[in-house]
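W.,

You were right to be curious about this one. When I first looked at the sequence I had no strong expectations either way, so I just let the prediction run and decided to look at it fresh. Below is the sequence, 82 residues in total, followed by the output.
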Amino acid sequence: MRHSTGFSHPAIGYLQAALRTRLQRARAEEDRGASAIEWVVIAAVVVGIVLAVGFVISSALTSKATDVQNCIAGATDQSGSC
């Protein structure tokens, strides 16, 4: 069996068919790039939310750690605020 390229190896024919099919699918999907952009935007929003929540939790933990440290340091004077 001879192909239009002049090669008779079956693997070459399969490769040509696979590339043609892939090219046709790529041409048919016009919004493929828009979908990728949407995923990037969604990922950026999720990362932003995670960073904001992480900052709030970190601030709260730092504040409470300072309170505990002050309470431990002031335990000898029996102030009763802890």
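Here's what jumped out at me. The mean pLDDT is 81. And, maybe more interesting for your project: The CA atoms of residues 43 and 51 lie 12 Å apart.

Coffee later to discuss?

I.
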